[in-house]
Design goal:
The chain is of the alpha/beta class and 232 residues long. It folds into two domains: 83 residues, Methionine synthase domain (Methyltransferase, Methionine Synthase (B12-binding Domains), Chain A, domain 1); 132 residues, Cobalamin-binding domain (Rossmann fold, 3-Layer(aba) Sandwich), CATH 3.40.50. Helices cover 59% and strands 10% of the residues. Helix 1 runs antiparallel to helix 2, helix 2 runs parallel beside helix 4 and helix 3 packs antiparallel against helix 6. Bound molecules: cobalamin. Cobalamin binds next to helix 3, helix 4, helix 6, strand 3 and strand 4.
């Protein structure tokens, strides 16, 4: 029933068996196959993108076509979040590069797995990450930025009607004492309309977690270059 079109080879087979297990209500089997793949040397980032993200997109397709119920979608989503948590001993390895990220869904936004993947990719690159999850009130996000002083905030929106909330949040950040923090946005509406990030007033956009990390690295190195030229 499920058809992973984007992936190839080993990961495609793993993604298929993974989702099949979840649809058979066997999250223990799904979890075991992921742990086994990692212990056999599979790249965790590939598992995140080619298995977790792809299976969630496939769940969305099955749900939209009335092939699975809302309850099945909820089960798959909850199981994938649980299995991601089981991978944290492999992700939080101790190396730190001194940079800090706050990652959050905008107020009203319930789709949290995308920005969680983004946050975990930063953690794997040595950043200190503060993942706030779904539907965080905008004023609380701004307070967190003032308190933690991260270099970058990653803001996620998956549903177009939450874009107004993104604009409000960005305006509130710009008016606050945290105004210098670089703002990275992402999620479905931004991927469907690649110039949208400029219209909401962000500093950058990425279509996926890998790209997000490299854009943040650019932010940091541009800042260093600006500091150097100010020092001259
Ligand atoms: C699971 C799910 C839910 C769950 C979410 C639970 C949770 N804890 O996250 C629940 C049940 C809450 C839900 C609710 C709704 N959902 Co829903 N949901 C999904 C589903 C099936 C999977 C989402 C997911 O986990 N994706 C996996 C992640 C990894 O992918 P991703 O989000 O694309 O993230 C990647 C990139 O976009 C990017 N990215 C994401 N965020 C960020 C942030 C930054 C800074 C950067 C740089 C990059 C980045 O990087 C990520 C990793 O590479 C999608 C289907 C789909 N195609 O996504 C529908 C989907 C998003 N939902 C949809 C809808 C319509 C809804 C509801 C409106 C349904 C309803 N009538 O109530 C509500 C809205 C709730 C709300 N206010 O937000 C539609 C949206 C259609 C549209 N017009 O935009 C989709 C596409 C389903 C569909 N095919 O119709 N949903």
């Amino acid at each position: 029933m499920n058809k992973f079109s984007g992936e190839s080879g080993e990961m495609k087979e793993l993604a298929k068996s993974y989702l099949e297990s979840l649809l058979l209500i066997k999250r223990d089997v799904a979890s075991e196959m992921i742990i086994k793949a990692i212990e056999n040397g599979a790249d965790i980032k590939k598992i995140y993108i080619d298995v977790f993200e792809s299976s969630q997109h496939e769940v969305g397709r099955l749900w939209q076509n009335n092939l699975i119920s809302v309850a099945q979608e909820h089960y798959c989503t909850a199981a994938t979040q649980m299995i991601m948590s089981q991978l944290y001993p492999y992700i939080f390895k101790g190396y730190k590069n001194g940079h800090r990220l706050v990652a959050t869904c905008v107020e009203g936004e319930m789709h949290e797995i995308g920005v969680r993947i983004v946050s975990d990719f930063f953690e794997m690159e040595g950043w200190d990450t503060y993942y706030l999850g779904a539907n965080t009130p905008n004023n609380s996000i701004v307070e967190t930025l003032i308190q933690l002083e991260p270099e970058v905030i990653a803001i996620s929106a998956s549903i177009p009607y939450n874009l107004g909330s993104v604009v409000e949040l960005i305006n509130a950040v710009r008016k606050s004492t945290a105004s210098k923090i670089k703002i990275l946005v992402g999620g479905r509406p931004f991927s469907l309309s690649p110039e949208l990030w400029k219209k909401v007033g962000a500093d950058g956009y990425a279509s996926n977690a890998l790209e997000a990390v490299s854009i943040a690295k650019e932010f940091i190195s541009n800042d260093k270059n600006t500091e150097k030229s100010h020092d001259k």
